[in-house]
Amino acid sequence: MLFSIECLGARWLKDEHEWEIQFRDLKTSVEFVRRASVLISAVGGINKPREVKFEGMSKFRGHIFHTAKWDHSVDHVKKRMA
Fold first, then answer.
1. What is the Cα–Cα distance from 75 to 81, expressed in whole angstroms?
2. 19 exposed, middle or buried (CB, 10 Å; 0-12, 13-18, 19+)?
3. Are strands 18-25 and 31-36 parallel, antiparallel or unpaired?
4. Torsion of CA 19, 25, 31, 37, to 10 degrees
5. Could you give the CA distance from residue 6 to residue 34 in angstroms, rounded to a whole number?
6. Residue pLDDT tens, the chain, 82 long
7. Alpha carbons 22 and 50: distance in angstroms, whole number
């Protein structure tokens, strides 16, 4: 298993019956390609949150954060969350 690796894209190579997957090492910025017969898309579709704004948001007095950027310092005991 590799960590700190970003998947840049993948394409099915019909004639070879393989996936060609492009990656980038986030620590070194080195890009590389790997091939595989099976591709499991577990790249985290919601790991880059879309910032939203809605009416009344600026008046809210609690903590606001996306689940992809969870603030573990916030004590959520006996609090309502949405």
1. 11
2. middle
3. antiparallel
4. -10
5. 13
6. 778 998 899 999 999 999 999 999 999 999 999 999 999 877 566 667 777 888 988 898 888 888 778 889 999 898 888 7
7. 24
Spatial distance between the Cα atoms of 19 and 36, rounded to a whole number of angstroms = 5
This prediction has a pTM of 0.53
Here the tokens at position 44 are 């985290």
- Given a contact cutoff of 8 angstroms between Cβ atoms, the answer to whether 14 and 23 are in contact is no
Own/partner contacts of 27-34, CB < 8 Å, gap of 24 or more, are none
Question: Token match 């916030």: residue?
Answer: 74
Element (H, E) at 63: none
26: alpha, beta or left, given left = phi > 0 and alpha = psi -120 to 50? Answer: alpha
Secondary structure E strands in the chain: 5-13, 18-25, 31-36
